[in-house]
Write a structure and sequence with these properties.
Blueprint: E1 14-18, E2 21-28, E3 33-37, H1 48-54, E4 59-63, H2 81-95, E5 100-106, H3 108-118, E6 123-131, H4 140-149, H5 152-161, H6 163-172, H7 181-188, H8 198-209, H9 211-218, E7 229-234, H10 243-251, E8 256-260, H11 266-269, H12 271-290
Parallel strand pairs: 3-4, 3-5, 5-6, 6-7, 7-8
Antiparallel strand pairs: 1-2, 2-4
Amino acid sequence: MQNINPQLYPFQPNFYASVDGRMHYLDEGSGPVLLMVHGTPAWSFSYRKLIQALSPYFRCIAIDHLGFGLSDKPEQADYSPKAHAERLEQLISHLQLKDVSLLVHDFGGPIGLSYALNRPENVSKVIILNTWMWPLDDYPKIAKGAKIAGSWLGKMLYKYFNFSPRILVKQAFHDKNKLTKEVHRYYTDVYPDAKSRGGPTAFAHHLLQSSGWFHQLWQKRHILSRLPIIILWGKHDPLLPISLLDRWKDALPNASVHTLEAGHFVQEEQPEEAAKLIRQFVSSAVKEEQE
């Protein structure tokens, strides 16, 4: 992407050479590690306000999945959530990250939480924004949309009309004024042509196609219940119904839960409140570990 405004995205780029292609990530600040994992069609840009607010206190790392943001977008790569989770684990190992506080959103939920389930000894805290970690077949609205997205028509819309960043991002915001034209172009312009849109297109397909993998993750949810967890949920999310939050609360009764005046992108619409809650949560958990 060209013409990045340093006032909006004032960060130094870093790259990791995965076996599938080069992955971009941000590494800002110092202190306890706060690893941010995005969904679709987002990238590290969506976390820019949280990084600016939290990097004075934590080492904030925000990745771009392969096929997203400033990472490579090879046409033939495996863009399944499981493949993204494997690359994330490889990057964590490459950077030798320890005692990770894991922040996940959207598809970043199952991708990032997969690491927490596999390596819980290296995850100290979990921050959950609007996401899931189970099959979505039982949610009629989501399943209907996913079937359309995975059809030939959906693939045409995603590949040739950039449907996800152009249309779904707009729909995902509760306060439309928070999505200015300049901010919106950072979601659209990183996918300039059909060849570059394999990542978002694959995610649309894998909403249902990866149900078996989501089920495997959900069967191990008891591992998450042993970790300190905070849930920040945009209560006006038009993409993921509030019933998903109820399922999280049932599965993680000890989690601290906060509903915010936002749509799908809490980190875009309520960055100040989200950063305040995250800082308090991570700092208090670190203090408890030290005592």
